[in-house]
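User: Okay, second chain of the day. Same drill as before: sequence in, structure tokens out.
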Amino acid sequence: MPADGVLTVFISYTGEDLDEHAAAVREVVQRQRCLAVDHSQWPPSGQESVEACRKEVEGCDVLIVLVAHRYGWIPTSDEGGDGDSSITRLEVQWAGEDTPVIPLLVDNKTSWPVEHIEGLDNPDVLGPLKRFKDELRGTIAGFFDGLPSSAATLAADALHTVQLERAKSGKGPQPKSSEPLLQRYLVWRAELDRELELIGFGENLQITLPMEQVYVPLKAVLANDFMHRDPLGQFDEEALREREHVELDLDVVQAFEQAEEHDKRGIALLGDPGSGKTTAARRISWHVAGSQAGQNVLDGKGLGLPPGTIPVILKLRRLRSKEAGKLKDFVAREIATWCEPTDDESHLDIDAPDLAEALWSSPHVLWIFDGLDEVPDLKTRGRVSRSIEGLLRRHEGHRALVTSRYAGYQEEAQLKSRFLELHVRPLDEDQQSELVTRWYDAVERGIGGRSAESASKARNRAGDLLGVLRGPDFRSRRLASMAANPLLLAVLCIVHRKNTKLPRKRGELYDKCVEVLLEHWREQGEPGEGRLQLEPEVCKAVLASIAWWLHQKDKRTEAHGEDLAAPTESTLLALGAQMDGGPEGFLEHIRDESGLLVTPQPGHFGFLHLTFQEYLAATQAVESDHATELASHFGESWWDEVTLLALAQARKPFARAYYEALLERSAVDEQDDLLGLALGETLWLPSGLLAGHIKHKKTKAPRKKAMLRHLTGRRNTELILAAQHVLDKGPKSARSAAESFLLQAGEALPPRKRVARVARADEATGLLMLRISGGTFEMGSESSLASFWESPVHTVTVADFALARTPVTNHQYEAFVRSEPTRQQPRYWTESRFNKPDQPVVGVSWEDAQAYCEWAGMRLPTEAEWEYACRVGTTTAYSSGDEESDLQRVGWYRGNTDDRLQGVATKEANPFGLFDMHGNVFEWCEDVWHDHYVGAADDGSAWVDEGSGRRVIRGGSWNNPARFCRSAYRLMSEPGNRRVSLGFRPARSLA
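Assistant: Same drill. Structure tokens below.
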């Protein structure tokens, strides 16, 4: 007998024609913790078989009926039948009035094996079969195709609905919680999180899929703090050696298992916009709630959470500033909105104060705070974080999951002692394939029905898009980043489905997406009364004004329709356009027909994703000439993406006005990296204005240096003259940047200014190779900071060689990636924190670095060459001195990076003219690792004869302590490792 609360499901089908489909359905039934029964154990003959089937059917809780093109065995009156009805039809009749029947019929458009089609030309067979199908017609749960999995999916959905209804009616499994109120909440929560609506479809064309079908598992990595620290919070050098710079991916859904290992009760889940943080949070919530509400949660595994945990999802964008230190007030207000009656009766029918009290007193609650970055200001964000930490201190059994964009997770807002920090990884190629395949399958079936034709369209179109994504255009950093972002990949699917060639620039892609959403999906249905009749250009202009209005309101991502009426109406009037229903009618139509707007709470409207608000706000800035106002927000993270997208589409007058306003601001010098991004994104560069600013005697040296560094590679006469002026008359600290600019522009340096060590600028890579004059030095260290593998100190003589002035940057590595279609991209190629043009490329293995060097006609430096070039004749800890303050001047390390990778050549060069020899990234060397220098060569050659197979890495990195960045410090890594702190700089032998 089944256990209490376990459903018995009888699966009825006609025989071998549906054996595989029945087996797939049986597996689904069992996965949903139900008892599966069918008539396969009784032969289709005799009274005994009929009686056995009838007994099982009358005792079952649910009957699933599979019907294809056979009517099946017809028992005679002697056998217990009526001589007319098949056994399958009889089983439907035997089911009691209270027994749910789930009929699943084959789609008639699906090709079917001829041998499994009964009575092709026999009306005596076809007639009863047709009548039976007609009897089922009103209750059919779905149509399956030739794939057994399609029947299984339909059965899972229908069975889930039955389980939910039984739970609501009190007939289902007894609540695991002793509190009925919480069980009702769990059922509501599970149902709310169970389905996801696909991007690009509004209310008039809803396409939703169960979470288990549409969710692509996301991967995450532990923040570097946890990879490199011991339990006392100190860097553990031996542990770092043992880890060999391995960085393991883990499934986000299993995050709390990792937290348990680190004795943490909270997760800070960080990622880029659109990276899937919110969807992952909902997936966790559904897993936790669904497993207690009788739903199938795929694998049935725990998540590292205590049994009986209650999930609660709260959107922090709805938090009021005064609630930052009073989370109970915020929770109470949110619960009240859940319990307010709605027209579609989707509300939670529970007394709100009672639910709030039950949650706070529950021993185990998972609080999911979504969107910390959407709290308006940093100070308030910090108060929210402290309140969440306090919540975990007061409630020992509670857990917390907090999501945030990287940009909003500054020091003051960071969650401390009880939290494990995880970073969401971009989608890899396998995940991209899975998402595209699922997206197209859902769309084609949602629009064309479950037919063979729809399935074929889905396969073909998904394959075509994946072919484009694997092509050379999408190997560039920016486009590869789009394909690796779940939201933007769905955007690509939308644009591709319209048979539109995918744009090659980010701004153009957003523009095409807006166009498609406004225009394409309304074509899916018949035009009718109330459908949106305004031209897409008009709609886009109105949406741009709304986006600009929202973005000015201190991190607003939504507003009540009444508040948005003014910008909506004024733009419609300015364009001479009218809309039935007025401004609110416009908002509703855009929401219902395009999906670009959503209603995050009753009466409110916001954009589908912040990405679209940013793009449309940038469009409005350009169209309405808000250059000066945009410049006033320089350095505010909320405005960064708007600024970059505006500059990428703006013509010269706007760009000139923007930079005129920007260069008057002293704060620009504090945002060197952002200035570089802005200059790199600008479509029409006002070179005369910038050149004049560089040459001006009042422009300070740091800004001259920064502008020349970020403009390097632009062969513009005005800028070349400005660089020559700096080289002749500018401050000494800016001359190296001027020299780099001129060399990469192909300009000959004046003899009196030429640095003797410059070998040449490499045309293929853009690398500046410096001539390092050979000599003799003492290699290794025996100082108090030294490790045993830095000894013994020994004399080495190095011949002349050339070495790259900086580590290879992302910009310099991109040409290699695009020239090698089969070459694996760097591990962090698509992550915004690590793929800026002037940052050193990271996530490259020793094999990757070797391949690049071979492609460029170079090689990796030997370990002896590297240390010789780093020391520049010094015997101190760093080439700049012995103290950490000396390192500050020349290198990036944990003490001064704010925990992020830096652009190259932003610190002082060493006397050889080399940048970043101390810190920023560890650099691969040619040598095989040996635990000491006993037996090492004294001629500077690579030591590769024997050893561990691991390779030497040198220099320390941005996330290491100062001592790791010493000239003598050495470490090893497996040649295949591709860590966030691993880069390289090429060398070349000289005759």
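Residues 148-169 form the longest helix (22 residues).

User: Thanks, on to the next one.
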